[in-house]
Structure formats: C-alpha cells, structure tokens
Amino acid sequence: MPNANIIPINSNVVSQLVDEISLNDKLSRLKRLDLSNATVNIWITEVNIRNLSKRFIKLKRLNIHSDDHDTFKDFVVDCIDGSEHIEQLRPVTTIQDNRLYYVESAATDLTQIHNLITNTTETELNDQNELNSYNAYAIQLTFGDDDESIFAFRYIGKSWSVKNTAKRNLIFDNDLIAKIESTPCFQITPYIDFIQYKDDVFIADVKQFELAMNYHERLKEKKTEAITALCSSPSISPEFSSTLKTVIGNDKFLMRQLASVHDKGFYNNQNWLSNLRAAAATAGNWKIQFDTNNKIIINNDKNYIKEVLTLLQNKRVKTVVDGVVMDVDGELVAIG
After folding, report:
1. How far apart are CA 105 and CA 111, in angstroms?
2. Distance (Å, rounded) from C-alpha 36 to C-alpha 232?
3. What's the average pLDDT block by block, 10 residues per block, for the chain (336 residues)?
4. What is the pLDDT of residue 299?
5. What pLDDT is stored for residue 80 in this prediction?
6. CB 272 within 8 Å of CB 280
7. Cβ–Cβ under 8 Å, residues 230 and 266
8. What is the pLDDT of residue 76?
9. Residue among 312, 309, 315 nearest 265 (CA)
10. Parallel, antiparallel, or unpaired: how do β-strands 99-104 and 85-88 relate?
11. Phi/psi-derived region of residue 37, left when phi > 0, alpha when psi is between -120 and 50, beta in every other case
12. What's the Cα-to-Cα distance from 212 to each of 226, 277, 292, rounded to whole Å?
C-alpha cells in the first residue's frame, strides 16, 4: 500500500531550488573572499558599445596615491557586502538595492579586457588630457597565495571629462600620481556597475551593465558565432544551422545558454560526446536524439533545444541523497 505521507517530488521545483542554492553559494563565496590585503590596480579603458568584436578599444593603468588604495578597495567591498540576494538576470527584472544579478562571463566580452591587461605594453597614463578619450574603469584586486583577481567595473560614458565635477575626483602631482580630492576634474564615484570573478559576473546596476556591454546586441552576435561553431563540430551537422537559429530566435535565456555551450567547448570533445550518448541511452527518457553518424539531431521544439543546450553545458545532475535527476540553470560549483 502506498505511503500516504510521501510527497511526490516535482523535478522542476527541485531544479529551481538547486539553481537558487548554486547562486546563493556563489554569492557566499564572493562575500567570503579576503580582500583585506589585496593589491589594487586601476585600469582606465575605452568601451565602444557598437563594436561587437572589440568592446575594449584601449587600456592604460592609472597610478593611484598609496593613501587611496583602501578607498578603491572599499568601493568593491561595499558593493559586495551590501548585496544580500542574487538571481539570474532575466529579460524583465525587478530591481532591488540589495540584490545582485548573475550572468555567465561567456555571455559577455569581459575576457577582452583581461587579454588587454595581459598583453598591453604601454600601460601607464602619461598625460592628464588623455583621460578625455576614456569612458570606463576597472578596479582590479589581486589577492591570495595564487594571485587571483577580481575586477569591478564602472562605465561613465559621455559624462567622463577632466572638466567634470563629482564628489570624488582625481588630481595629479608632477609624477602623474593620482589622488582623490574635491577639485573639479576627473570623475570617480564609489559606485560599482558589475563585478567579474572567474567565470561569473555579478551585476549591481543592470542598466549600466546592459549599456556598457551592449548586452542584447552582443548576445545576437554570440548566437551566430556559437551556431557556426556547433554546426561545424563533431556534435551537430551543418544542415541544422537554420533550425537552431530559428528556434532560439531572440530568447535571451537560450542565447546565454548557447554562449555558455560555445565557451565550455564540450561539443568538440569526441570522448565527452561518446559519454553523453551512453548516458542518454542509459536514462532512456531524455529528449535528445542522435543520427546514424552519432551527431545530435536538432528539431523545431524549444524545450528540446533547451535540453540539448543544458546537456552540452554538462548541467544535468543527479542528487546524491535521493538520486533525483534535474537541470541546473546556474553554474555548478565543485565541492572540496
């Protein structure tokens, strides 16, 4: 006789709970970072919101007076500590002051600024007037035994000028060392638009993030890049390119998942794909289908495509305690 006290498990509800737990864990890890002894670097950059292939045009390092290193560090820490909640960035969000919004770094162009920092040769600002040609800055905090870095971004746009007035401004001494003062000049604020740490982006100001990253247009571009790569890989045949493009359409959630698939690159790994086929065969009830050449079949169904993208991100999991299989929207965090 069935036990009347057993409550049936709704896999969608459990999946949402696991996703929420994963995001909360990311926020907790962010808040636990010990930045007290972090090294501070300030990078000024020009963001071109219309250049989809080269978002960050140029970059210089700004010398900051030693007295103000802790001030810049506090800008970042205050942004993190002031956030009590986190959720996925959705097409429509309800903005709350104490909430961060999450996207995968793969859905943005933030790797470009990392490459600039790594490869740039002429790094320091040489002339105060140069500031007028930059419109954003990043606070880099480097910490820990492994010299990890966290980047906090602020997009100023057209309002950035050495003639502007703000509560906190920069002045320069004869050695071009910047110090925060009240003199009307280079604009610095205590506000952070978004923070990148490893593969995660934590958004404090959705409007500023979407503007600086030209987020919606860039997602469309990344969609084209990802579909081209997928349909020339061992995982999917070229004939399915148009179907994939049509089904995903302008669905921002699916475009983000597609960008993440592209970034992770499992679709190019023959051994991993073989394991995927074996897991699907063992499960017996997954939607994903394969043709006679062991490639993934793409059909005109959004739920089917969502499963394919989830699997290609390796985000189908089984709970340890009760063995429930579910899909997780957020990034998985390894234990240990």
Report:
1. 8
2. 47
3. 42 53 88 94 86 77 89 94 86 68 86 79 77 86 91 77 52 66 58 91 90 83 92 94 93 87 92 95 93 94 93 84 71 56
4. 93
5. 94
6. no
7. no
8. 95
9. 312
10. parallel
11. alpha
12. 22, 40, 45
Are 315 and 328 in contact by the 8 Å Cβ rule? The answer is yes
Q: What are the angstrom distances between the C-alpha of 228 and each of 82, 87, 238, 322?
A: 41, 30, 8, 39
Amino acid (one-letter) located at 78? D
Helix (H), strand (E), coil (C) string for the chain = CCCCCCCCCCHHHHHHHHHHHHHHHHHHHHHHCCCCCCEEEEEEEEECCCCCCCCEEEEEEECECHHHHHHHHHHHHHHHHCCCEEEECCCCCCCCCCEEEEEEHHHCCCHHHHHHHHHCCCCECCCHHHHHHCCEEEEEEEECCCCEEEEEEEECHHHCCCCCCCCEEEEECCCCCEEEECCCCEEECCCCCEEEECCEEEECCHHHHHHHCCHHHHHHHHHHHHHHHHCCCCCECHHHHHHHHHHHCCCHHHHHHHHHHHHHCHHHCHHHHHHHHHHHHHHCCCCCCECCCCCECCCCCHHHHHHHHHHHCCCEEECCCCCCEEECCCCCCCCC
Query: How much is the pLDDT for 306?
Result: 92
Residues 6, 7, 8, 13: is their CA dihedral positive or negative? negative
Neighbouring CB atoms inside 10 A of 15's CB total 20
| Contact yes or no for 30/80 (Cβ under 8 A) | yes
Among candidate residues 139, 146, 119, 178, the one with its CA nearest the CA of residue 34: 146
Residues 27/100, Cβ–Cβ less than 8 Å: yes
Contacts of residue 212, Cβ cutoff 8 Å, sequence gap at least 6: 47, 49, 136, 153, 155, 193
Token pair, residue 257, equals 């998942």
Which is it for strands 168-172 and 186-188: parallel, antiparallel or unpaired?
Answer: antiparallel
**Amino acid type, 43:** W
